[in-house]
Amino acid sequence: MVHQQRKDPLEGATVDGRYVVQSRLARGGMSTVYLATDRRLDRRVALKVLYPHLADQPGFIDRFEQEAKSAARLSHPHVVGVLDQGVDEINGQAVAYLVMEFVQGRTLRDLLREHGRLTPRHALVLLDAVVEGLAAAHDAGLVHRDVKPENVLLSDTGQVKIADFGLARAVSATTGTATLVGTVAYLSPELVLGKPAEAQSDIYSTGIMLFELLTGKQPFTGETPIQVAIQHAQSDVPAPSVLLPGLPEDIDELVQWCTSRDPEDRPVNGAALLGELRHISAVLTDEELDFAPADAPGPRPVQNTLTSAVVPRISVDEPDDDGYRTEALPRTGFADDARVEAPAPGGATEAFPRTMQDDNSTSVIGRDHNATRVIGTMPAAPPSFGRPHGTPAAAASSQAVSSPTDTTRIGRPGSHESASWTDGDVGWYDGHTEQDAPEAGRDNTGRDGGERPGGARTAGSTARPLSKRQQSRQAQRPQKSLHGRAARRWVRVLVALLIMLAALVAIASWFFGAGPAGVVSLPDVADVPLEQARAALDEQGLASLTTEEVFNEQVLAGLVIATDPVASSEVRRFEPVELIVSKGPELFDVPDLLGRTAVEAAVELGSAGLALGGVEEEYNEEVTAGDVFRQTPEKGAERRRDSTVDVVVSLGPAPIAVPDVAGLTEQEAVSALEQAGLEAVVVEVKEYSRTVPAGSVISQAPTAVEVQRGTPVTLTLSRGPRSVKVPNVFSLPEDRAVAALEAAGFVVQVDYTFGSAVLGLVARQSPTGDQPEGTTVRITVT
What is the pLDDT of residue 377? Predict the structure, then answer.
């Protein structure tokens, strides 16, 4: 059986007495687009007619007119111009229409279907025109809200234009806040979450469109629109190079900048995006712009960003924050943490300290006291040792080094060692000035006085010559007695010092061996109960123990997770050791999701440390369509982090099959519809019917379909048959009489006088006069 395609009722109609509809071009989610002719200006235009249910919404016409006026004020080469707007009535149905310039060509979607994906050069050129049009709209205060390839028109002359400004905004104002108006694949996260649209919303959709132009695929897909919307709200758009390795990094950054989930992290408007877009087009090479692999390989592995880190250089002679100058030291073969010798400001040599001990690193070996030292030129006058007690001797001798080739100072590092010269000799006093030296003023023979044998006075000595009286007293003292007392005194002091030194060595050995400063290897107590772990550490002599309890998904509550420092580390017994103990897995309360949309439920679960699981849809007579009416597990249950919660979303009341009430009386038809949960609407104008009695239903609309509860069903009642005057067919031939009666709407019954026609003329007819249409008229033929 051949079915003839139903003709569009608007084809051939004239809208508002001016626009003659020629043919239907396309149908979308909100409107149908026709090719029409403007009779007044004799030009072709695109006539966009919104679906009737939108025009019936309260306040829609005013809102639609306001948005159309705003869009009409926008004049730009890359924006489809709005020429007219209005509402007309055709065949008793309100028709809200928008007249736009007709662009002969195709859409960007058609181009994608033909090529699959575009090269970066081609994609950036097309996007440049789109963004330029958006920039002009944003400057005028307009937000598109529905940027997608279907709304980008490519003319046969090479022009790129974006269409449908203001239409999504006008429609959304009539559908309520719970409805998302736009294409779900390109919706920005803020629109999914019910927030108002801004210029950044168009930027997000443009970024999704660029992703699709480059890869031939949309970043988010799902079995239901809810699943796609949730991904926009919860997931980041991947870089295009994940699907198409080899794309320039600048393009990846551009897509991810435009598609950031936070509007504040995107370009502020189309003008900002346009500048960056043109900059990228200018800096990319021809090879990068024409990148087009033969096939799309799988996703590339995640790159380790640490391998490409750039270490900034510190320029030489550049002052630091503290006012000092940073100098770059040449590498000389030392390890990075070894001590390096560098020139000091005074010309001497200083050793920079090591920052970390490394057994394998190169280091500067400490000075050997037995090594040969180069001593600088002797001073013209011997240095004086008559300084106050306690003054470091090294300070007085710091200028003794004068040779530029010296590698050590005179005096051992870290001590108060000083030099004295006696007639050209060099001697050392460890940490003492001359006043501190025992038996000051005594020469090397044991005799008092400040002169050496031969009459030479000790250079630099401050001892005064003895008076005659002092010399006489000293001469009376026995020489042996003086030497014996001094020897015994020094022996006792030496023994005491040796005993003290031995005691210190013993104490140090114990302290750094078996004592608190002894080094032990920290035992591994992971997965061990806390008390057993404490006992194991006590056996090692570790007394400074602390604990910290943390949640852990793998380790049972009460068991040790790890130690700080880690196991097998060498620590001293007095150092603190922290035991990290598990509190078990952290549990989160399941929030109440009833009455929320699936997107709102996903956001709330994410805030509670959980995740949205399966989303099912069922009919529900009491819950509004789109809202959650059942969840598993229920509110208040405790679950681990990232556990999933399944929800069931209402589809609204279940659809009802419209009963067939044709032929029933008005009362019977109304009762049948109300019992089915539908609303009966009886048309006041009745129609004639030869077959349906007066007062019964001739027709209904809709019929034989499933509709939502409460849907109105229109009933048309019968007025019964029409009253028609019976034509006079007396003496007419039989065939002409039958034709005349049937044409008048009667049923003809033929009787013959002689059993068959002889003359063939009508001799009698019954009834006559005015009769109901469809009445049987009998004729007698002779």
Answer: 35
Q: Which residues are catalytic?
A: 146
**Mean pLDDT of the 243-253 span:** 94
Q: Would you put residue 77 in left (φ > 0), alpha (ψ -120 to 50) or beta?
A: alpha
Distance, in Å, from the CA atom of 460 to the CA atom of 452, rounded to the nearest integer, reads 13
Q: pLDDT at residue 455 above 80?
A: no
Extract the tokens encoding 234.
């919860």
Which residue carries 């250079």 as its tokens? Answer: 459
Q: What is the DSSP letter of 658?
A: P
Strand 545-550 and strand 577-582: the pairing is parallel
Q: Which domains does the chain have, with CATH numbers?
A: 6-102 (3.30.200.20), 105-289 (1.10.510.10), 521-582 (3.30.10.20), 587-650 (3.30.10.20), 656-719 (3.30.10.20), 723-781 (3.30.10.20)
CA dist list (Å): 163 to 72, 150, 206: 12, 9, 14
The DSSP secondary structure of 326-371, one letter per residue, reads: E-PPPP-S--TTS--EEE-TTSSEEEPPPSS--TTS--PPPPPTTS
User: From start to end of 711-775, where are the E strands?
Assistant: 712-720, 723-725, 747-752, 762-766, 770-772
Q: Do 138 and 272 contact (CB within 8 A), yes or no?
A: no
pLDDT band at 538 (very low <50, low <70, confident <90, very high): confident
DSSP character string of 593-606: -TTSBHHHHHHHHH
Cβ partners under 8 Å of residue 583, min gap 6: 549, 550, 551, 552, 557
Reduced 3-state DSSP string for 52-96: HHHHCCCCHHHHHHHHHHHHHCCCCCCECCEEEEEEEEECCEEEE
Tokens for 520?
């032990």
Please choose, from the candidates 607, 603, 651, the residue with its C-alpha nearest in 3D space to the C-alpha of residue 629. 651
Rounded Cα distance, 522 and 565, in Å: 8
Please tell me the distance from the alpha carbon of residue 220 to that of residue 124, in angstroms, as a whole number: 22
Task: Quote the pLDDT of residue 714.
Answer: 92
Task: Report the alpha-carbon distance of residue 446 to residue 480 in Å, rounded.
Answer: 12
CA–CA gap between residue 614 and residue 24 (Å, rounded): 41
Q: Would you tell me how many other CB atoms lie within 10 Å of the CB of residue 340?
A: 21
Task: Please list, in sequence order, all residues whose beta carbon lies within 8 angstroms of the beta carbon of residue 700, skipping any fewer than 6 positions away.
Answer: 658, 660, 661, 662, 669, 713, 714, 715, 716
Task: Say which residue, 134 or 709, is predicted with more confidence.
Answer: 134
Do 140 and 152 contact (CB within 8 A), yes or no?
Answer: no
Residues in the chain, total: 782
Alpha helices in 140-224 (DSSP H): 167-175, 189-192, 199-215
pLDDT digits (tens, 9 = 90+) for 16-53: 999 999 999 888 767 889 999 999 999 999 999 988 87
Instruction: Kindly tell me the sign of the dihedral angle through the C-alpha atoms of 86, 89, 95, 100.
Output: negative
The predicted-structure confidence for 752-774, as pLDDT tens digits, reads as follows 888 888 888 888 999 988 888 88
Tell me the C-alpha to C-alpha distance, in Å, between residue 117 and each of 183, 289, 722: 20, 14, 66
* Mean predicted lDDT score pLDDT of the chain: 75
Residue 471's SS3 state is: helix
Which of the four pLDDT bands, split at 50, 70 and 90, describes residue 255?
very high
In this prediction the pTM is 0.50
Model pLDDT, residue 644: 93
pLDDT at 167: 62
Residue 182 has pLDDT above 80, yes or no: no
Least-confidence region, from 181-185, 435-439, 547-551, 665-669 = 435-439
Q: How many CB atoms lie within 10 A of CB 129?
A: 19
Q: Which residue has the higher pLDDT, 350 or 29?
A: 29
Top pLDDT among 373 and 140 is at: 140
pLDDT computed for residue 187 by the predictor: 93
For residue 53, CA distances in Å to 8, 57, 95, 395, 654 come to: 17, 7, 10, 100, 21
